[in-house]
Specification:
By secondary structure, the protein is of the alpha+beta class. It has 2 domains: 129 residues, Zincin-like (2-Layer Sandwich); 38 residues, no CATH class. 41% of the residues lie in helices and 23% in strands. It binds zinc ion (ZN) (2 copies). The site of one zinc ion (ZN) has 4 residues, from helix 2.
Length: 205
């Protein structure tokens, strides 16, 4: 589908206000209510996959525009092409300001943003967003009420001894599978690496 006119003009207005060149906007649909987005600085685009909820579409586009406007950390640009976006205070200062100036109620911004990034709430508290403190206290209460898993040590710490188990590599002492980056780390290590085997007990109330 083609990019909706409101989205094109939002990109124009936000970037003109900030005095930066606008990205190209790519717009596709996705199933479900929620939208996803990504800002790709190196190729000058913001891509949105738009779900059905119009408020969430707007928030998603503004979130990616906040990435677009957030200065890159000094001295680190270009080291990695695909940098992990930083959802820090500097980012949220820009993001919540955009949400507010471009038609999102604080309550919607908090609700949708914290559903994706719970850590946004403590930044929102610092930024003085209405309702943020209450939402953060609610979240703490929910976390505290949630049953926690208890972990216990099944096999105490030991040196990893690689062995084959069919097509898998396992530790011959505890039987854990060793895969992917852990496997290459083990093979590259000068001295045997050590680990423990932990197991979850049933949820405690
Ligand atoms: Zn982000
Ligand atoms: Zn082991």
């Amino acid at each position: 589908m083609s990019t909706p006119a409101w989205a094109e003009s939002l990109v124009e207005v936000v970037c003109a206000d900030a005095g930066v060149a606008p990205p190209r906007l790519s717009w596709r649909r996705r199933q479900g209510d929620h939208s996803t987005g990504v800002a790709r600085r190196h190729d000058g685009t913001i891509a949105v996959r738009a779900g059905a909820d119009p408020i969430d579409q707007r928030l998603t586009l503004l979130h990616e525009l906040a990435h677009w406007l957030t200065p890159m950390p000094a001295g680190r640009s270009g080291r990695r092409r695909r940098r992990v976006p930083h959802h820090d205070l500097a980012f949220y200062r820009i993001a919540f300001d955009l949400y507010r100036r471009h038609g999102l109620a604080d309550a919607d911004a908090l609700r949708l943003e914290s559903a994706r990034y719970p850590s946004s709430l403590r930044h929102a508290v610092v930024l003085g967003i209405a309702g943020a403190r209450e939402a953060l206290i609610d979240r703490w209460a929910t976390l505290r009420a949630r049953p926690t898993r208890r972990w216990r040590v099944l096999v105490p710490e030991h040196a990893v001894r690689l062995a084959r188990d069919g097509r898998w590599h396992v530790c011959s002492t505890c039987g854990q599978r060793i895969v992917g980056s852990n496997l290459s780390r083990m093979r590259g290590a000068r001295r045997p690496l050590r680990h423990v085997l932990m197991g979850a007990e049933g949820a405690a109330s």
